[in-house]
Design brief:
about 70 residues; 3 helices
Length: about 70
C-alpha cells in the first residue's frame, strides 16, 4: 500500500468515526455513512490513491448504503 492510499483510507476512517450524532441518526443515514466510508476506501485502493476514485467510491457507496438502509428500522 502506498502512502496516498494509506492517507486516504485514514481520512475516510476518521471522518466516518467522527459522526458525533451517530445515536440520533436513522438506520438509513447510518447505512449511507458506512457505505460512503467503505466505498471511499475501495475507490482509493482501486484507483491507487487517486482523489477522483476515492470521492467517486464514497459517492457510490453512500448511495448504495442509503438504498440498503431504506427498509431497516433503528
Amino acid at each position: 500500500m502506498n502512502i496516498r492510499t494509506g492517507i486516504s483510507a485514514l481520512v475516510i476512517a476518521l471522518a466516518t468515526s467522527a459522526c458525533a450524532t451517530w445515536d440520533g441518526m436513522s438506520a438509513r443515514e447510518k447505512s449511507a455513512v458506512v457505505g460512503a466510508g467503505v466505498g471511499g476506501v475501495a475507490g482509493s485502493v482501486l484507483s491507487d490513491g487517486g482523489v477522483l476514485g476515492t470521492v467517486g467510491g464514497a459517492a457510490i457507496g453512500g448511495v448504495i448504503g442509503d438504498q440498503v438502509g431504506r427498509n431497516r428500522r433503528r
